[in-house]
Amino acid sequence: MSNPEIGAKRLPSLGDMPADEFRRHGHELIDWIADYFEHIDDLPVLAQIQPGDLKAQLPTSPPQTGESMDAIIADIDRLIVPALTHWSHPSFFAYFATSTSAPGIFGELLSAAFDAKSMLWRTSPASTELEEVVLDWLRQMIGLDAGMSGIIYDTASVSSMHAIAAARERVEMRIREEGMSGRRDLPLLRVYASEQAHSSIDKGIITLGLGQRALRKIPTDKDFRMHVKALAAAIEEDKRAGFLPFCIVATVGTTSTSSIDPVPEIILISEEHALWLHVDAAYAGSAAVVPELRHVLDGCHRADSLVMNPHKWLFTPFDLSVLYCRHMDLLRRAFSLVPEYLRTPEQDKVRSGSDYGVQLGRRFRALKLWMIIRYFGHEGLAARIREHVRLAKLFASWVEESRDWAVMAPAPLALVCFRACPQLKNESEEASEKRLDALNEAIMHGLNATGKALLSHTKLNDKIVLRLSIGNIRTTEAHVRQVWDLLNEQLRYLHRPSEK
Amino acid sequence: MSNPEIGAKRLPSLGDMPADEFRRHGHELIDWIADYFEHIDDLPVLAQIQPGDLKAQLPTSPPQTGESMDAIIADIDRLIVPALTHWSHPSFFAYFATSTSAPGIFGELLSAAFDAKSMLWRTSPASTELEEVVLDWLRQMIGLDAGMSGIIYDTASVSSMHAIAAARERVEMRIREEGMSGRRDLPLLRVYASEQAHSSIDKGIITLGLGQRALRKIPTDKDFRMHVKALAAAIEEDKRAGFLPFCIVATVGTTSTSSIDPVPEIILISEEHALWLHVDAAYAGSAAVVPELRHVLDGCHRADSLVMNPHKWLFTPFDLSVLYCRHMDLLRRAFSLVPEYLRTPEQDKVRSGSDYGVQLGRRFRALKLWMIIRYFGHEGLAARIREHVRLAKLFASWVEESRDWAVMAPAPLALVCFRACPQLKNESEEASEKRLDALNEAIMHGLNATGKALLSHTKLNDKIVLRLSIGNIRTTEAHVRQVWDLLNEQLRYLHRPSEK
User: Fold this and answer.
1) B209 → closest Cβ in A3, A47, A209
2) Which of A77, A269, A403, B92 is 20 to 30 A from B179 via CA?
3) 193-222 in B: which are within 8 Å (CB) of A?
4) Residue range B80-109, pLDDT digits in tens
5) Burial, A441: exposed, middle or buried (Cβ in 10 Å; 0-12, 13-18, 19+)?
């Protein structure tokens, strides 16, 4: 059936942007982005604005009538760019440095045009099946066993929350049906994670209604790795108290130091007590793409679930977090709900993403990851991660060789924890600690204020420690050399013992 | 400090795609998308593949070395497009028809390049402040009072879950700290929603550990609106039983029929019992952008929270859901957690998005919404929504005028529930219902299989009912006329009483 009317009757004041205008501005924005990356070294990494500066420049009410794309693009240059902290800057070394990449940007561009909601197989067969295939590729690349299936969520916080929810479902206490309030048959449920675990574990547990007291924090050793004996003792103690331990969260690549919990030992305890072992490898999971770093996931072939974030260290634009799980049936049992309006003839033969989580609609995120893996190839991705690790080790070697600086934690991957520690004569330890904390905070803020690089901090053994994380695809040895020079410049400026 | 080395020392085998290649392929993809939209009417709406077809065409392991963008783009044409159900197609009338738009696509393109994680003010002042401003614009556009602040999440499921979590926090039973398991002081907590409420409310409640029995479903009237008297009676009954009612979810625009719960009456009950009133206006909230439809939000000026989805009916690429909330302090109390590594000097003076939710990292979603509101203007957006409502009413009038079809629910907005109901002589009511259910399912599947349009269904009063939802920016009267012709063609083909 042909319909000659279609396409002809659109009122000029309705519809989308005319095609010629879309092409013109689209090309303009592609060039804008290419220019942005070519000149990004000239931009300050940290936004050089004060709170409220951007708001003050924006109208307080929406435009009644439409404006031109030219005006909007001009405002992106004038207002938005100066208010950005540039995560794409190669001298962004804060938090976990991450990066987007060209094939990933193209993937997002296409996804925005397709605008698929991959809630059911039928609403987006492409994303449903591509997700399965690409996550299986990634599983092979990081050396996980084929017993693990993957599913894409937005963030590691959400991935871990879903893993803990599946573990909660496994306790067989009808929590999905009856909940946890108003019950006298339900003991205190317990989850275990190290003191260095990410705050998302706390948040997931709070959200799930388990409460902060459900999370027992296990002390760590001198290398910030979970104390396995303390874990075992805590579980025994809780069991004696009548509590119900049901889940352990091990971290492979903690946020403060990238320390790696001893999963091969933790797995023995989780198996002994039949607890769900969830591995938070949001950061370090990507390292396993490098054959000689695959050992970071040692022991994970027996874990129940594992989260890794391609948007952290696999050059994937934010957001894309992957949960690998050995019990997709439990995840499904925890979350599946198919109302009549979502029933489809094929539903029993296919996988529907929305069966496995809180979210019904899901973006076509697999597309960008597929394009990235194909464009760079396994070896290309491994080469880039390997280079980041080399640069971090190089930086750590400079710190170690310097009299005024010290490495403060092992640096197994591409994160270095360090601090300035120039000594003063006749200073008490307490005074020294106080002075060094203040000095390091001042160095960080001074350096960040220059806009030439961005670092963040943490606290280890009550000491302020600086963190240098390398993860941007554009970061080169020159950028790392530059931040080292800048750090020493700050130190020289801030630490003048002769004046004291 | 200048550093002439930077930019010069990148190894050719590392780094991102070279700039000239980025420009070339970027321009190519912009034209690809322009062509896609220009010829989208020629594509089948529903993917014409069988489960497993795409998977079977993809390699089972990742490429070792990188491939060219040319090869990848060729595979998008060859493999991905045929496996897509085209949500951007103007004859997509299923579920809630939605649509992306050019300024929204541009916003996503830029966001992917900036790759900002707006967890703290400092990590992305632009997204933090733009989000506040744009959500205040949107608040004004839909006529909500200034007591409501907005925050962006990914989906309505997540928005509603957060609203119910804030309500849970307000019961002052230390659930964040102590959780709900192993407690004898916690009565059964209860939430109320109509039988027509979206499944995301059930899922949110399950996730939060409240359990399905915590959700009491209130019957609806003949127009599928919550029975207010039944709500009041349920709350009274639960209180007498010693339960703790704490939240009511009213729906403005239910998924099955777009019915609108009587919020002005429900608010009186929520106030009488001091319950949190959350309004799920994920679909219909956008209608309030049209001045003469603003009444859909009547009563919401006293609600505690309200979710609306610009990605549903405001031409915003998926995902972008907005939660408006009158008690941001409670939302913050339910979710804020600031570990040392996220502490910043300005944290007490600014808003940090991650304080208000499960997710730590948050995409720069405000950018696309800002670009859309500016490009179309309030009047332009209202004109498009108004046209969709006009088209739906036109379609409903055709259905009403036809002897063989019937409208099955009021159609206040741009969703029409209808079914074929040709009568046969001497048929029992039971036989007739069975026949009509089968006939309507067959019409839907027959129509969808043509690829010329896509409808979905629901069940109302135990009858299979078809749903036609109009929400795509490219949908014109010709598309609506075409689907009506196609429906009648299916009916003529499937209903041949003379042959029976």
Assistant:
1) A209
2) A269
3) 198-200, 202-214
4) 999 999 999 999 999 999 999 999 999 999
5) middle
How many CA atoms are closer than 13 Å to the CA of B266, on its beta-carbon side?
Answer: 34
Structure-derived torsion over alpha carbons of residues B484, B490, B496, B497, reported in degrees to the nearest 10: -50
Q: What is the pLDDT of residue A10?
A: 42
Binning pLDDT at 50, 70 and 90, where does residue B11 land?
very low
B446 touches chain A (CB under 8 A): no
CA-wise closest residue to B36 among B90, B113, B98: B90
Distances (CA, A) of A177 to A183, A333, A335, B113, B244: 12, 11, 11, 43, 17
- Rounded to whole angstroms, the Cα distance separating B100 from A114 reads 8
- The reply to whether residue A80 touches residue B130, judged by beta carbons under 8 angstroms, is yes
Q: How far is A469 from chain B (nearest CA, A)?
A: 13
Is any Cβ of chain B less than 8 angstroms from the Cβ of A446? no
Interchain proximity B102–A21, CB inside 8 Å: yes
A388 interface with B at CB cutoff 8 Å: no
> Is A179–B54 a contact, with Cβ atoms under 8 angstroms apart?
no
CB of B373 less than 8 A from some CB of A = yes
Q: What are phi and psi of A252, to 5 degrees?
A: -110, 95
Q: How many CA atoms lie within 13 A of B332 on its CB side?
A: 12
Of A17, A110, A211, the CB nearest to B180: A211
Distance CA A332, CA A340 (A): 18
Contact B444, B434 (CB under 8 A): no
**Which residue among B23, B38, B456 places its CB closest to the CB of A341?**
B456
Asked if B401 is an interface residue toward chain A (Cβ–Cβ < 8 A), one would say: no
Cα A156 to Cα A374: distance, rounded to the nearest angstrom: 24
Q: B374-499 — its CATH code?
A: 3.90.1150.170
How many angstroms separate the CA atoms of B130 and B136, rounded? 10
Which chain A residue's Cα is nearest to B349? A51
A146 touches chain B (CB under 8 A): no
Tell me what ipTM this predicted complex has: 0.96
Look at residue B396 and give its three-state secondary structure: helix
pLDDT value at residue A448: 98
Q: For the segment B369-424, what is each residue's pLDDT rounded down to a tens digit?
A: 999 999 999 999 999 999 999 999 999 999 999 999 999 999 999 999 999 999 99
Is the Cβ pair A115, B6 closer than 8 Å? no
> Measuring CA to CA, how many Å separate A187 from each of A486, B13, B214, B371?
55, 57, 19, 51
**What angle separates helix B102-114 from helix A102-114, to the nearest 10 degrees?**
150
Tell me the domain boundaries of chain B.
Answer: 117-363, 374-499
Reading phi first (left if > 0) and then psi (alpha if -120 to 50, else beta), residue B325 is in beta
B6/A476 CB distance under 8 A: yes
- The dihedrals phi and psi of B108, each to the nearest 5 degrees, come to -65, -40
Alpha-carbon dihedral sign for residues B6, B12, B17, B20 = positive
Query: Does the fold of domain A374-499 match that of domain A117-363?
Result: no
Please spell the DSSP secondary structure of B157-185, one letter per residue. HHHHHHHHHHHHHHT-S-HHHH-STT-SS
pTM of the complete model: 0.96
**Minimum CA–CA partner of B475 in chain A:** A15
pLDDT value at residue B498: 61
What is the CATH code for B117-363?
3.40.640.10
Angle, helix B156-170 to helix B328-335, in steps of 10 degrees: 90
Q: For residue range A155-192, list pLDDT tens digits in order.
A: 999 999 999 999 999 999 999 999 999 999 999 999 99
B212–A177 C-beta distance less than 8 A: yes
Sheet of A276-280: strand order equals A149-153, A321-325, A305-308, A276-280, A244-251, A189-194, A215-218
Band (pLDDT 50/70/90 cuts) for residue A13 is: confident
